[in-house]
Known about the structure:
By secondary structure, the chain is an alpha/beta fold. It has helices at about 10-35, 45-75, 90-105, 120-125, 130-145, 170-180, 210-230, 240-255, 295-305, 310-330, 350-360, 375-380, 380-395, 410-415, 425-430, 435-450, 465-470, 490-495, 500-510, and strands at about 110-115, 150-155, 160-165, 185-190, 190-195, 200-205, 235, 265-270, 280-290, 295, 335-340, 370-375, 400-405, 420-425, 455-460, 475-480, 545-550, 555, 560-565, 565-570.
Amino acid sequence: MGIDRPVSSRAGLVAFTAFAAGVLAAAATLLVGLAAVPEASTRLDRLALAVLLPVVVVATIAVYRAGVTATAMARESLVDPLTGLANRVHFRQVLDDRLADGHAAWSQVAVLLIDLDRFKEVNDTLGHDAGDVLLQQVGPRLSGALGGDGLVARLGGDEFGVLLEGTDEADALRRAGAIVAGLEPPFTVDDGLLDVEASIGIALFPDHGTTTETLLQRADIAMYRAKSRQHAVELYSPEQDHHSRRRLNLLADLRTALGNNELVVHYQPQVNLMTGRVETVEALVRWRHPREGLLAPGEFVPLAERTGLIRPLTALVVAEALGQIARWRARGLDLVVSVNLSARNLHDPHLSAQLRDLLTRHDLPARQLQLELTESSIMDDPERAGTVLRALDELGVRLAIDDFGTGYSSLAYLQRLPVDEIKIDRSFVAGMADRPADRVIVHSTIDLARNLGLTVTAEGVETETVLDLLREADCHSVQGYFISPAVAADELEALLECPLWAGGMAAGLSRGQGSLFGPELPHVPLSESTGRRPAPVFETADDHLVLDLDGEPTLDLGGGRHPSRRTVIVPPRL
């Protein structure tokens, strides 16, 4: 069932026209009355007639013009000037009206919020004019997919809204599916074709809310749920709202955690395939939440990135990582630490100076710090990213592009940036054994990077098969669960200082025989109470050696006595 557009603009024009007609009628009546005045009337009456006529005419014209202007302004206030669709104000007004009607008639109303995926990349790559052209084409696609039913509005940016009356859950989902299908054909922009996808959230009246504000909020929650799960369409459910409240609570707790030493840094080793030795470790933050237990970065870092908390969080991780590298260096472990930066960090004008101060405080050469930036964070604002990266390069730190292959940059573009390394995204690495296309992408990336003088690290190495394929492709370095999960600093230190582990790692990788952290050692989660992993129990054959690295005793492994940290099983192949 369609929703009529408001007639406020037309009603306003009719009202002002009626008013002007009334003024003219009154003036005509007055003129007739004055004309009927007998000859005995005074000259003053006739003078009044002569003066009043032009005044009435001018006033009538002024009122009419004011009415037309007011009507046009009222209409403009309800229409998006770029697309000609209803705007947010218009959308909310109509929704308010329909909810009032719905309370009386018990009819259902569906609110659909539509957000174009990666629209910012269109603006950044092709320019805002091209983005505007795309937005102008989206409205007709939406209206066409709905068959002219409902109200389609541009709510702002790349967000659109659809209002449907008399629509139940099944019909709303069907209509959303039609919108997704309607957006599938490529859009023509600047003589090129663009594929556009969207995320759609749905909320229903009265099932999900009875007010405009509630329905819009819950459709928004569903839309972001669709985006985060990479689903085209999501219908609101209370469980989604629970997660939203949890995120808000976590955000509030995170402010406190930054000052309460609840955030800890773990380290994942990155192994050089040429030597089999650990040369770099990636610093990964964890949160020992007082109620939730140990939280992985995916639980809270995205929250920090959407607020100003990402800056103090990054500063904390860098300071802790450099302090740990300095302590390891004093004990003879010469490692490079790699720390992730977010897009917001690229907007921090004090970043370079803060890093310089931290390196000086810990008496570390700049090349022992590597900073990782995602490909998408660079492409969000290439000009600013280039400026910041050049300043960091002048400082002397190493620079790496993380999650390479998931954005829209190219190695040719990256060659213009002072980058030392690229890290191939785990989505390509993990699929090498099963998907030939992923294997081709990884091989091509390694070859091109080598030709450009860049080193390459493959992330997400979880099987020996993938490790063998990367070795055959002459990949420089690897990291992933097959090598080791991210572990606490003392755990990693014990393993790095263990001659059997370090020697076995080097020998095993150089011979193509895996590592100590292969299939024989499953990943065991940290204990929420102690923050350590419980010692795993293994049934081993006589030719396997078990090291109790979690117990109190120390082990003499031929190269000195080392405090125990974990239980690991050393396969006989090493």
